[in-house]
Amino acid sequence: MSGHKGCCSTALIPNQIDHPWMAVDASIFPYTADQLAAITGYVLNNGSSTGPVTVNFLRGGTLAPPLPFSLIVKPGEYKSFTVVGVDTIKITPSDSVATGELNINVNFNPR
Length: 111
Fold this sequence. Notes:
4-stranded antiparallel beta sheet, globular, mainly beta, single chain
């Protein structure tokens, strides 16, 4: 690929993330909104969790307000999503102990 000056290299920016989480009010996602076109994936809340978690999607960093799309995932459940232009995912537990998995596939060039 000589002469190719594309913005994104899969060696530098992975297009799939599989991230185990322990529910703390924390943000997960290493991209900026101008790099993203669309993400799809799922959030799993393990059956051993003691309560649900809320998954919010943000555009504009950790201080941005959540988009009007969120997921509530109960213990033993998983929910899938497709969202465009998100740079932060925030998993917030209720007053519970929760663990799970976040799986994301990034499409940098949806056509």
